[in-house]
Amino acid sequence: MAIKKSELYSSLWKSCDELRGGMDASQYKDYVLVLLFVKYVSDKYAGKPDALIVVPPGGSFADMVAAKGQKDIGDRINKIKAALAEANHLTGVITVADFNDPDKLGKGKEMQDRLSNLVGIFQNPALDFRRNRAEGDDLLGDAYEYLMRNFATQSGKSKGQFYTPAEVSRVIAKVIGTSKATSSNQSIYDPTCGSGSLLLKANDEAPVRLSIYGQEMDNATAALAKMNMILHDNPTAEIWQDNSLSHPYFKQGSGNKPEDKNLKTFDFVVSNPPFSNKAWSNGFDPAHDEYARFTDGVPPQKNGDYAFLLHVIRSLKSNGKGAIILPHGVLFRGNAESEIRQKIIRKGYIKGIIGLPPNLFFGTGIPACIIVLDKENAANRRGIFLIDASKGFMKDGNKNRLRHQDIHKIVDVFNKQLELPAYSRMVPVAEIEANDYNLNIPRYIDSSEAEDLHDIDAHLRGGIPNHDIDALDAYWQVFPTLKQQLFIEEPRPTGVSLAPDTDSSPVILSEAKNLTRHTEILRFAQNDRHGDPEIVKLTSMEPRPGYSSLRVEFCTAQIKATIHTHPEYRAYNEAVAEWYLQWQTSNIATLKSITIGTSPKQLIETLSEDMLRVFAHVQLIDKYDVYQRLMSYWSDTMQDDVYMIAQDSWQANEDLLPRQLVIARYFAAEQQHIENLEAAREAIARQMEDLDEEHGGEGGLLEEAKNEKGKITRTTIKTRLKYMLDDPDAQDERIMLNAYLDLLDQEAEASKKVKDAQKALNDKVTLKYRTLSEDEVKTLVVDDKWLATLINDIQSELNRVSQSLTGRVRQLAERYETPLSVLSKDVEVLTGKVNAYLRKMGFV
């Protein structure tokens, strides 16, 4: 049976448990990933002539399995990977980690057991990579990504820079245009490639296989990158270990001619360099750079951000496209960087800038941006497209992370150059020039949330400001008459009168005329020293311009009920359900036609893009929120299911088809019978609890029947009955004990019935699994599992619409419920009561 992605992840991460303690994550990743590499190439290439990777005798994972339990297992593993490395020019790549190091792996029996257990984890038959190849939809490639993310998370601030988050890599891959590549002769390059994840993501977007080049300064990280390329079926990728700034490896030629000193140029260049590197100029003289990278200016000596940017620009062909991740400071810092920035902008190299959320990257928490470069259209560029995507993310442990919807929105908006309020706009170069070439995104896009201003007059005199109600116009466009159902124009009194013979009439009348609502007048009268609600009477009212009152009872339940029962809301609910049904109807045949060999990634792309299309024009619901619902369910459940079906077809097993789904469709009556039996058992248990509560306390009839733990059991009751057998005065206690004993017997009988019924149902379900046809499995999985979950998710989005409106209406009503006039009167009354008590107690 195919392995689930989630199970593969947990199996591989379990291998790390064998190594924790002796070293930190930045070190044990080298051991785990080497074993993963050896297992993968052994499964894929062993015994195959003319394979890209040679697995020699004595250099396979099978040889590691043979070393399990041996005293010299560490030395044997070193020799096995050395043999594999020598046969494939991988010395220094997979030979970095020493599996015979007692300081890290323990001594003697401790090392022997630890390494034997580690090999045993990878020996699991489920981890058979002969079927799960690292191509497109491969489990292994995603598992490697999962491990890299976890290693980066645990490696600490200074050691996680080898990894570019996959979500950011996907954004870059989609905005630089590798999807438009037409030839395998086209190339992609990363001068700071780390573990190679950014290169691979960009290459994956291309419809053809690009020529991959990467350079990485750190030796161990360069080794990771080389392994990563092979694991993802790019064994011909060229990865070089050295400093790209001081010793760039890839040049136009290899001779001593002047043109051989020029940097090799590429169709696509991507980079996530170390931020603000203070030692960037070590090993060469930037002022006399032999590769002419700094003709637009030499970056500051203690900050290398622009050095990497200029290296990327120089490495692009005349029609090349690229992207580099840099801290926000490069957009606005002054002095030498300002001059360089001005020249780059004037040349038109910058196509766009994407501002990212803070705390995305391992090794730093500062916010960063993606600078998208395009030399091909530089001469005609008259503006720079800016996106402020800083607000779209989710928390993931102690880091932030882009969601599926954030990635898709960024890519859609950038590639289509869509201008959205508070999110994106095309900024003319003339405007940038007027701002001294400052590219700080907030200067051009105000993404701050509008302040929720309070209305002073409403606080003073009551009423809900109409401008706050009108601000909910998006809802009133969909529910035009709901507004009138919820709100009524705020009335104000134009005439008041007093009861005859009222003392201080002029004073009371003057105060009453300042009130704004009928309810306030009544409160005024009731709180007046006369205490007579009839002392002030309303004679006439008129609307108060600019203010309204809540028409319904002021409580969340009533507001929500008014919204939910309104015909326009119900019609909207039905319309959204119909839109979802359109999507379901369009895709149910595709879902039920999944077969062995189906590409899960192509499938989810088709499903998700169609979901975006269907919900593109639905009001009040963000299409990207619906898209996220689908993608979250895909990540949590559906992709595991599809991977299993794509490898093993529609097999009726509990991994794909939970028992509860089979019960719900075929054995609902039996399940209901069990629930009835359980309810009967619970009723008996409640009777015993009631008796215990009433008679089990001190002096109660059941007190002596409790054991040392305070429990009443059949044994304790029988012991007590035997003890009091000849006691003529214990008749009441005897009756109570027998009653409780009878309930215990009833409970035991009820439990037996539940157990027997449950066993009978389990037997029926087990038998049903064996007889389910493929069509029945499809119905259970597609209709009852996938689509039922998704329709519930769509309903959750609908609920958010009503919850948002309900919450805002309640907030406004609560905010202005009690105006100053009423508060003042209440204070006056309470002050009078306090003073009266003080006088009674003799205090003045």
What does it look like?
It is a single chain. By secondary structure, the chain is of the alpha/beta class. It has 30 helices and 14 strands. Strands 3-2-1-4-5-7-6-8-11 form a nine-stranded mixed β-sheet, sandwiched between helices. A three-stranded antiparallel β-sheet has the order 12-14-13. A hairpin with a 2-residue loop joins β9 (about 395) and β10 (about 400). The chain is globular and about 115 Å long. The model is unreliable at about 135, about 500-510 and about 510-535 (pLDDT under 50).
Q: What is the topological layout?
A:
Layout: H1 5-17, H2 25-45, H3 61-66, H4 73-87, H5 102-105, H6 109-122, H7 139-154, H8 166-175, E1 187-190, H9 197-204, E2 211-216, H10 219-231, E3 238-241, E4 266-271, H11 305-314, E5 316-327, H12 336-347, E6 350-355, E7 368-374, E8 383-388, E9 394-396, E10 399-401, H13 404-416, E11 424-428, H14 429-434, H15 456-461, E12 464-465, H16 466-470, H17 473-478, H18 482-486, E13 487-498, H19 505-513, H20 518-527, E14 536-550, H21 556-564, H22 567-592, H23 600-614, H24 623-648, H25 659-666, H26 668-695, H27 714-723, H28 731-771, H29 774-815, H30 820-840
Parallel strand pairs: 1-2, 1-4, 2-3, 4-5, 6-8
Antiparallel strand pairs: 5-7, 6-7, 8-11, 9-10, 12-14, 13-14
Helix pairs in contact: 1-6, 1-7, 2-7, 2-10, 8-9, 8-13, 13-24, 20-30, 21-29, 22-23, 22-29, 23-24, 24-29, 25-26, 26-28, 27-28
Helix % is: 40-55%
Low-pLDDT runs:
133-137, 502-510, 512-535
Compute the CA-based radius of gyration: 37 Å
Q: Sheet bearing the most strands, described? A: 9 strands, mixed
Strand order, largest beta sheet: 3-2-1-4-5-7-6-8-11
Overall form: globular
Helix count?
Answer: 30
Structure class: alpha/beta
- Amount of beta strand: 5-15%
Averaged pLDDT: 88
The count of DSSP E runs of length 2 or more, i.e. the number of strands, is 14
